[in-house]
Structure formats: C-alpha cells, structure tokens
C-alpha cells in the first residue's frame, strides 16, 4: 500500500494517468495521420532547424478467413450447398454421416460428386449420428 494512501492523487494514480495520456496521444497521431514537429531546441545552432516527422508504419493488411462447415450430409440440402460452393469456387468442409451415404442412390451419387470435387474436404460425423444411444 502507498505510504500516502490518504492523499487524493497518489503516485500510482499519477503513473496510470501518464501511461493513459501517452497511449491516447500515440493512438491519436497514428489514427489521424498528423505529424508531430519538434521545434528547434535552445542548444542548437541558430541556423539549424530540427524537424522530426512521424511516419506511418507500414501496416500489413490481414487476410480475413471464414471457415465453412456443413454437418449431417449428404442429405437434401447438400445438393444446394454443393452447387453454390462449386459455382463460387469456395472451399468448405462437409461432415458426412456414413449411414446417409447409403440411404439412397441419390445420396450415394452426391457423396461421389463431393469426393471428386477439389473444393470440399470430407470429414467423419459418425456412422449413425446416434443421439443418447438411440
């Protein structure tokens, strides 16, 4: 605890206020792009002008990534997803229920199409999609 804990503005608060002031000032100059000019100091030669300009650091643009996953295929909705994603050349992961692959000839054909397409990664979502051992 501070020795002068009864004072309204102690050294800990002064330190925190200083850090916040420096942080907000830095963010302000960075966001607004304004330059910070330093005037010539009293110790410099009279004909010398010292100017410091703040340059914006090179900011790399981050690539946004969205991961698409679809569960319980192949089912009736899988065909729609397949055509949209293939048309847009968008990769996705499809979680397949093994029992659905053998549910009908249509589902088996859809599974074969998914397997052949390079845009899709197929992953296991169980064989029977059992819920509470039923």
Describe, in plain words, how this protein is organized in 3D.
There is one protein chain. The protein is of the alpha/beta class. It is 38% helix and 11% strand. The protein contains four helices and three strands. It has a three-stranded parallel beta sheet. The longest helix has 22 residues, at 11-32. It is elongated and about 90 Å long. The two termini are 61 Å apart.
Produce the secondary structure layout.
Blueprint lengths: L10 H22 L36 E5 L2 H13 L3 E5 L1 H4 L3 H12 L3 E5 L10
Parallel strand pairs: 1-2, 2-3
Strand content: 5-15%
- Number of helices in the DSSP assignment: 4
What's the overall geometry? elongated
Secondary structure: helix percent: 25-40%
> By helix and strand content, what is the structural category?
alpha/beta
Q: Which blocks of ≥5 consecutive residues have pLDDT under 50?
A: none
Rg measurement, Å? 32 Å
Q: Could you give the distance between the termini? A: 61 Å
| Topology order in helix (H) and strand (E) letters | HEHEHHE
Number of strands: 3
- Average pLDDT taken over every residue: 76
Q: Strand count, sense and closure of the main sheet?
A: 3 strands, parallel
Instruction: Order the strands across the largest sheet as they lie in space.
Output: 1-2-3
